[in-house]
Amino acid sequence: EMILEVVERMLKENVNKDIVDLVEHGQWSSSVWQLFKESSMTLVAVNEKNGGAGGDIEDLLNIVRLTGKYAAPIPFTETTFANYLLEYTGLNIVEDLATYMISTNQTFSLEDGRLNGIASNIPWARHTNSLVAIATNLDKIHLVEVSLNDAKLTNGSNLAGEPRDVVSFNNAKITQISKPLTSEQLFYIKTLETAFISALMT
Fold this sequence. Notes:
Helix content is 36%, strand content 26%.
């Protein structure tokens, strides 16, 4: 409860109409993000031995709900979900802003540690530093992290005006790669994504 009271107060005091409207111009609020970072909210549900703030996925989803309720224009859901995926697959979490792409309809291909392909509808890509994505290598699926500095971005948006960009990679060097994912792991990842998205909407 404590955590949620802190977050709600933070959002109530700092997210006004001007801040919410930033998103219509394709912008985000670095000041609100900074508050979340300083209070370690971006590390909730990350294991303490990996530098996390403790708490579990339920705590994190409750924070996601609040950011949705106040329409905070920050890639909180994306960064925390990306880090949760990295930790879940045994990789290192990222310090900076991140987003993700785990649609099995549009996958990147991986060969010799290089990533190729194009994916659309990537939330907040233009404002984040890392992309956590599923990629196919021969017949195996891996989770990879790659720098968005190595991507070609085309800006797009959803109906709410939030950034939903097209990201393409041409022989980009990946930063991390997981062991091949099992079908159970993939199913869990997809189920979790659904939980994050519905938390954001409620």
